[in-house]
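Supplementary Methods. Inverse-folding protocol.

Structures were first reduced to a discrete structure-token string of length 86. This string, shown here, constituted the complete conditioning input.
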């Protein structure tokens, strides 16, 4: 799961906005494909499923395994923006 919400929301609310990851790559337009790296902590190539965005209670978050690259995050946020302006 990748947290997409900004620092201000994350600081003051008890939920975060997040999108799940899957290793079953479908190459949907607008979904970033994340390659494993030391920074993101992934073990296999994964697709960020922006179309399955949801709010998640912070209590359900157990451990941070890494961070996505800025370009990957910007692509995901751009896809969300495209969805809301249709």
């Amino acid at each position: 799961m990748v947290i997409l919400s900004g620092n201000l929301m994350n600081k003051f609310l008890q939920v975060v906005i997040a999108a799940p990851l899957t290793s079953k790559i479908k190459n949907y337009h607008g979904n970033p494909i994340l390659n494993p790296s030391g920074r993101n902590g992934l073990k296999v190539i994964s697709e960020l499923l922006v179309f399955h965005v949801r709010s998640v209670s912070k209590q359900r978050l157990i451990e941070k395994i890494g961070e996505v690259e800025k370009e990957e995050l910007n692509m995901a946020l751009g896809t969300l923006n495209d969805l809301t302006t249709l």
